Fold these 3 entries.
Entry 1:
Amino acid sequence: MELQQRINAFSKLGTFISQFSSEKFIKQDNIPHNDLFFEGFKHQIKLAQENNGWFTKTNIVFSLNGWSKLLTNKNLTKWTSSYIFSNKSYKNVAIIMAGNIPLVGFHDFLSVLISGHSVIVKQSSNDKHLLPFLAKYLEHIEPKFKGKITFTEGKLENFDAVIATGSSNTARYFDYYFKNKPSIIRKNRNSVAVLTGNESKEDLENLSEDIFRYYGLGCRNVSKLFVPKDYNFDAFFEAIYKWHPIINEAKYANNYDYNKAVYLMSEFDMLENGFLMIKEDKSFASPIATVFYEYYNDIVSLKNTLEAEAENIQCIVSKELNNTNVAFGETQKPELWDYADNVDTIAFLLK
């Protein structure tokens, strides 16, 4: 299979997914195999919601909308044009996926197949319904993918390289278990925002998307703010208020109540507005319904701090630091060439 064939297949998959990119699913004409797959994928979305209370229809649709926009011939061609796909020695690449947000492992899945390799997928039990169905659609669109996609719930076997995502604890296990294989091992990371006090209301409203989308469960969600001394949080709380209905969702509310009780009993200082707590803390990984903050004295010393903590940070949201930072409201809209942990997955796979 040539690279262009693989690009064409994923582009058609993107067109299929586009039918599910808004709350009201709309069946379109002229989409191959739609009669066979449209109702089936609606059912898989329903099963995904039932299996995982964090996977609301809104969050699943948000993820699908993002992928429908990325999986176009233009985007896929632009992404792959930066590499030389001359390798004809194709391997079996295993992927161990996380399950914190819908289709969180799709980029690795796409990267392995677009590189020409075969993929062996071990999914999280929290996100097991969507990807196998999309893989079946891909095989119908391009039959040459048949035999190149395997899903397993058992022990990984017969693989040449591995991409594994987990917690910092499981990463140590992965490092040991896969020490004799080429690998990408991903650990816990969180995203941060740097505020100066000069942000517009629109900036802060966009920041709320970075905080609350997927309930803050993604590594690209902002879990910590860096703010100047004497920063006034009033404008921040006012701007994020549009997310207040989130407290009506049971799983989020339970976490909010529990974490608030822990903070109060521990006599921690914190500010809260009825659906979000902010607490001064040097850690990066904040609990659900909580955002940590830390004061900084000047931008230069803050840059040094962020560079020293680079292994713990996925994204930096800011207007002030440099052009590698993410714009407010854009953390959950990565491009195909925005790699997790800044590790170029395609370059790894081509080696």
Entry 2:
Amino acid sequence: MMEPTYNHTMEFPATFFLVGIPGLQSSYLWLALSLSTMYTMALLGNTLIMTVIWMDSTLHEPMYYFLCVLAAVDIIMASSVVPKMVSIFCSGDSSISFNACFTQMYFVHAATAVETGLLLAMAFDRYVAICKPLHYSRILTPQVMLGMCVTITSRAVMFMTPLSWMLRHLPFCGSNVVPHSYCEHMAVAKLACADPMPSNLYSLLCSSIIVGADVAFITASYVLILRAVFGLSSKNAQWKALGTCGSHVGIMALYYLPGVASIYVAWLGQDTVPLHTQVLLADLYLIIPPTLNPIIYGIRTKQIQERIWSLLMHALFVHFNQGS
């Protein structure tokens, strides 16, 4: 009888070590400062967006509810990776326990799956608001919105749970050094002593289906929106509608372009694209959208801009009154 190819008692290392960004060690201080600044902006901006929407009853509409959930997901996504990255770049503390590594992986990839679903929901919201304005409140009821959010979250959980299970059941009896700055799925899978191809194929297939379907529906929504907008008789109404959708399109480009590039470079460009470029793409994909989303929405959405300004003025007024 043949012996097993690995020892089951040595399947799981107690600790993984994250390399950071291979080849860019001389830039770690600059990277730590940049990431810390972007993370602080992401936390403050997204918290401010959520606070304004929660406090102002005039913003209790579907679009703003989706934006509030998006801000919460952005905080989770950035918080899952950035503090550990900064720790690696500043102090060299690269160790992460086996369970913490897989927990980080789960939250990062689940959050990205939720985010793409939210972008689709927001595109659908704009489609209904512009193409079927008279039926807006009847179509996007609180029950429908809750159902959409539950479906989006369930889809992310259904995608990540089998992936996490497959990867956790691989034997890790060799190197425990992850050539990445966080526990990215493929970087960890490469350390397995058994063939990681099934989990890698599952990840690529599910990511392609989820992102491909969402992008297709988003594109269809905006094609219909553009047809409706250019059918309006008023130029002012056309520009207003285009301005409202412009922020959404900008955020989608920020999210999907580096995300898709990161996924397929890791698969197809392993031997041609330098490793530090692959890692940087994956890192920026997780920190740039959470940083810029609140800025873009704050600038492009007049209602939020006015409410933020009003909230800041009220806070300053209260502060000066207390000081005097």
Entry 3:
Amino acid sequence: MRRPAFLSRLPVDPYIAALLGTVALAALLPARGPAAGVADGASTGAVALLFFLYGARLSTREAMDGMRHWRLHLTVLAATFLLFPLLGLASRGLVPYVLTPELQAGLLFLCLVPSTIQSSIAFTSLARGNVAAAVCAGSFSSVVGIVLTPLLAALLLGGSGGFPPHSLVSIVGRLLLPFLAGQLLRRRVGGFLIRHGKALGYADRGSILLVVYAAFSEGMVRGVWHQVTPLRLLALVGVEAVLLAVMLTLTGYGSRWLGFGREDRTAIVFCGSKKSLAAGLPMAGVLFGAHASLAVLPLMLFHQMQLMVCAVLARRYARDSGSLPAHPREARIPSPSGD
């Protein structure tokens, strides 16, 4: 679905604008008392629906066919779940002078989230890279992340007070089981999902907005936001800009050093340097509970930053390859729907 022309000229992705509007709504009208219980229950159901749809949409056969390109997929997984977490751990040296402990925990959580799928594919396509590899790499990252992200969070955030160990049980019940159910029922519901893809896309985005509203409402009621100052937010943006620049450099030069061709290097850069807002937001709601509002803030900022930077980078890659589309409309990047 194409975005209206006036939205295409906005510097902020419309879905990010909707997320920010949801945060503002939670700040002005947070759910309290019985309404908070309703919002929490609805959020739990929305998360389960999201991961059921993730499971039902992922073609297991296509994923298995893509295993022949295992070196590329291992490289992306190493960037996503090894290099990113190492940089996140290094950010502990910024506490308390640059980041608060809560913002640093959110930054570390950002580093544990799986890679994107849709936007990685879009940027790889625009840059004339290996789109098939990007599809498989993003899918593998998402599947691995459903298990590995909570485990890494328990290991690396368990002692910080922001991650309760019993959340692993919640992860299995609210994320992993719905995902597996979607995989098991894929043959039965796959046709329905294809026929109603547009409507289900809105359901995806609406579910994530509901999760964000519930998390930020609880944060407002508990006074979490009094811990953040504008100066700290500015510092966080600067740290994330450095993080993105480092990962783009490591994936670019690292893939070249490993001997990958140009198309494969392009897929590695765009899959290995980005993080999924769609997967991270519901996971944070389960993992962090009342502290989820601060935990997802770094991810929301990083998501918008990676879209803007990677859009420019993809155009440059395409121009350098000599195959840049003649008209900007031919290189239109689809809205990532929170991914």
